[in-house]
Design goal:
Strand content: 15-25%
Low-confidence stretches: 1-12, 286-294, 301-318
Order of helices and strands: EEHEEHEHHHHHHHHHEEHE
Structural class: alpha/beta
Largest sheet: 5 strands, mixed
Number of helices: 12
Helix content: 40-55%
Radius of gyration: 28 Å
């Protein structure tokens, strides 16, 4: 941008009134989702008080078919105000004209900066916009960060969200899960089945971000631990997971091991204990493992205590 920085129009800028229909949308607008209810609310506000902050546009002169010259305007900032004005049939809108024909890079950059300053972009639209700056205009993450006032890590971590499958991205846009949930799922990029299962649990059980991070981290470390497990242990782990309806992890140790059973609510815990009670008369399949171990029921919650302090199931041994 040759050192130029985006500035909101001020009272010292010249404001012009142009026909609403002559203002074309910014083709580089990074924001793809517009909340209809919020647009209607903004439209009603504009109906009562008018547009308090002018739109920012560029102007170009084009030759008409009859040889005359006509001014055309393209939006740089103010997409929501323009849409709201059209909703109520406003004939003219106030604009501040940015001199010169801006490049696509500048228009995209200005639109991103405006949205970031207002925190209007959802995490996925922001990621796509930042990725567009990198891909189409050859900017490094450091250069992008400097232009939008963010760190390189912020830019890189934002763009990484696009590695998630489309259903998860849609859930972020629809606010079924937050950006924090999505970042937790990135830990499981190389384990798609477990990632998708955890994603469904997040949506269904309204899992908190902290809990999601704990679960994702534990699943991610399971691969490292699996080489310590015998095929029999892995089969028992799978069988218990299916029969109890929750995640069960067997940790093998030099001296015995540990059986971790996760639950998400007091009701889940009651169901797990009831399952143990029903199976109490039967021979426990885990008894084939001769090494002494402990069985623990792990609360998968925000205030989960340290692993060593997890509540034990009384009188239950494996």
């Amino acid at each position: 941008m040759n050192g130029a920085k985006y500035q909101e129009p001020t009272r010292y800028d010249s404001v012009y009134w142009v026909e609403t229909e002559r203002v074309k949308p910014n083709p580089y607008q990074p924001r793809k989702e517009f909340d209809e209810e919020r647009l209607k609310s903004l439209a009603e506000s504009i109906r009562q008080y008018g547009i308090l902050q002018p739109l920012t546009v560029t102007r170009t002169e084009v030759v008409k078919s009859d040889g005359g010259i006509q001014s055309e305007y393209e939006l740089i900032a103010g997409e929501r105000r323009l849409r709201a004005a059209k909703l109520i049939g406003l004939r003219e809108v106030p604009v501040v004209i940015r001199q010169g024909e801006e490049s696509g890079k500048v228009k995209l950059e200005l639109a991103i900066i405006e949205n970031l300053q207002r925190e209007d972009l959802n995490a996925i639209d922001r990621a796509k916009a930042l990725a567009q700056l990198a891909k189409e205009f050859g900017l490094t993450h450091i250069e992008i960060g400097a232009k939008v006032g963010k760190s390189r890590e912020f830019v890189s971590n934002s763009i990484r969200l696009l590695a998630l499958p489309e259903p998860i991205q849609i859930a972020v846009v629809g606010k079924e899960i937050s950006e924090g949930h999505a970042r937790a799922l990135l830990m499981l990029t190389d384990r798609p089945l477990e990632r998708d299962t955890l994603f469904r649990d997040m949506v269904l059980k309204k899992t908190s971000v902290r809990m999601a991070e704990q679960l994702a981290r534990r699943i991610a470390t399971d691969r490292i631990r699996k080489h310590d497990k015998t095929p029999e242990m892995m089969e028992i782990e799978k069988s218990l997971t299916e029969s109890l309806g929750t995640r069960v992890v067997i940790e093998n140790r030099p001296q015995g091991g540990r059986l971790l059973i996760e639950f998400f609510s007091p009701e889940d815990l009651s169901n797990i204990l009831a399952a143990f009670a029903v199976n109490q008369p039967q021979q426990n399949p885990v008894s084939e493992i001769e090494a002494p171990a402990t069985a623990e029921v792990s609360p998968a919650a925000d205030d989960a205590p340290p692993e060593d302090d997890l509540s034990s199931v009384s009188n239950f041994s494996v």
